């Protein structure tokens, strides 16, 4: 199993680097929303091209102030008595890609995309646990996207869309976690700033493996990104409309190292960094390398 884990991470890094080379020829210039989603005619490149979607990165070390010692669910049915077997320090990586499958829907304006994101937390330094993966989150999506040109506050609303989103960790009871959402997205551009607001509706689930997840993780997400020369910053925040005390914030700083190689520093605070930790409040610090960003 340890040899398989090593082979898997090498394959993930190779694929991530390939996406980065194909879609980010100049790591200094941040992509516009039109370039990200091929909104304008000059940016359209056709269908079935595999390109990066969300940030692709590998954090060699990620430290947590409060590890999830015994994953549990307040429903009782999915409770577990797992003992404290995890380390506070682990590796973390994310791969993400998308492809356009239909172009010019609804009066020739809208596009249909499919996307996949996978986030992994790897106890690579934990010999007692055979360096196993603590948590894997799988997130396939179907995305309907429409271009817009609406002037607002000196910038422009550039796109509107909605997403059919499924997220799960692929585990069995008692540590199985999953939910389905309809996510709406509005993209706004101002100078070198990109802003995306994504409220969502959680679809009903009779076998709710994570009750109250929206109270912890939130009902909407705000992503704000900007580049300053060779340095890039982006923040992802989620918030619950039902309570002011929950939600989370993730701060990211991407900086040049050499050539196309870029460093990545990440700070997370709040609930739900992973699905298994949806009701665990923690602060985490991660450092690694970045292959592709928003």
Automatic annotation (TrEMBL):
<feature type="binding site" description="in dimeric form">
    <location>
        <position position="176"/>
    </location>
    <ligand>
        <name>Ca(2+)</name>
    </ligand>
</feature>
<keyword id="KW-0812">Transmembrane</keyword>
<dbReference type="GO" id="GO:0004623">
    <property type="term" value="F:phospholipase A2 activity"/>
</dbReference>
<keyword id="KW-0378">Hydrolase</keyword>
<feature type="binding site" description="in dimeric form">
    <location>
        <position position="130"/>
    </location>
    <ligand>
        <name>Ca(2+)</name>
    </ligand>
</feature>
<dbReference type="GO" id="GO:0046872">
    <property type="term" value="F:metal ion binding"/>
</dbReference>
<dbReference type="InterPro" id="IPR036541">
    <property type="entry name" value="PLipase_A1_sf"/>
</dbReference>
<dbReference type="GO" id="GO:0016042">
    <property type="term" value="P:lipid catabolic process"/>
</dbReference>
<dbReference type="Pfam" id="PF02253">
    <property type="entry name" value="PLA1"/>
</dbReference>
<keyword id="KW-0106">Calcium</keyword>
<keyword id="KW-0472">Membrane</keyword>
<keyword id="KW-1134">Transmembrane beta strand</keyword>
<dbReference type="GO" id="GO:0008970">
    <property type="term" value="F:phospholipase A1 activity"/>
</dbReference>
<comment type="subunit">
    <text>Homodimer; dimerization is reversible, and the dimeric form is the active one.</text>
</comment>
<feature type="active site" description="Proton acceptor">
    <location>
        <position position="166"/>
    </location>
</feature>
<dbReference type="InterPro" id="IPR003187">
    <property type="entry name" value="PLipase_A1"/>
</dbReference>
<feature type="signal peptide">
    <location>
        <begin position="1"/>
        <end position="20"/>
    </location>
</feature>
<dbReference type="GO" id="GO:0009279">
    <property type="term" value="C:cell outer membrane"/>
</dbReference>
<keyword id="KW-0998">Cell outer membrane</keyword>
<protein>
    <recommendedName>
        <fullName>Phosphatidylcholine 1-acylhydrolase</fullName>
        <ecNumber>3.1.1.32</ecNumber>
        <ecNumber>3.1.1.4</ecNumber>
    </recommendedName>
</protein>
<feature type="active site" description="Nucleophile">
    <location>
        <position position="168"/>
    </location>
</feature>
<keyword id="KW-0479">Metal-binding</keyword>
<keyword id="KW-0442">Lipid degradation</keyword>
<keyword id="KW-0443">Lipid metabolism</keyword>
<keyword id="KW-0732">Signal</keyword>
<comment type="similarity">
    <text>Belongs to the phospholipase A1 family.</text>
</comment>
């Amino acid at each position: 199993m340890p040899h398989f884990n090593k082979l898997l991470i090498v394959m993930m890094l190779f694929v991530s680097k390939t996406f980065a080379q194909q879609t980010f020829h100049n790591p200094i210039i941040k992509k516009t929303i039109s370039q990200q989603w091929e909104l304008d005619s000059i940016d359209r490149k056709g269908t079935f091209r595999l390109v990066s979607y969300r940030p692709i990165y590998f954090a060699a070390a990620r430290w947590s102030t409060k590890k999830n010692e015994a994953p549990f669910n307040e429903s009782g049915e999915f409770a577990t008595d797992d003992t404290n077997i995890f380390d506070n320090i682990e590796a973390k990586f994310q791969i993400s890609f998308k492809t356009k499958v239909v172009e010019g829907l609804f009066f020739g304006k809208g596009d249909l995309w499919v996307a996949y994101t996978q986030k992994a937390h790897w106890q690579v330094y934990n010999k007692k646990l055979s360096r196993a993966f603590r948590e894997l989150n799988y997130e396939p999506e179907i995305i309907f996207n429409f271009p817009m040109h609406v002037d607002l506050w000196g910038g422009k609303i550039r796109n509107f869309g909605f997403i059919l989103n499924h997220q799960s960790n692929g585990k069995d009871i008692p540590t199985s976690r999953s939910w389905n959402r309809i996510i709406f997205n509005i993209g706004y551009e101002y100078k070198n700033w990109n802003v995306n607001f994504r409220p969502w509706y959680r679809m009903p689930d009779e076998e709710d493996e994570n009750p109250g997840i929206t109270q912890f993780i939130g009902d909407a997400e705000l992503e704000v990104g900007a580049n300053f020369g060779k340095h890039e910053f982006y923040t992802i925040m989620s918030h619950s409309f039902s309570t002011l005390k929950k939600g989370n914030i993730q701060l990211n700083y991407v900086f040049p190292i050499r050539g196309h190689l870029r460093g990545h520093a990440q700070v997370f605070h709040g609930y739900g960094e992973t699905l298994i930790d949806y009701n665990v409040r923690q602060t985490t610090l991660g450092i690694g390398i970045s292959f592709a960003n928003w």
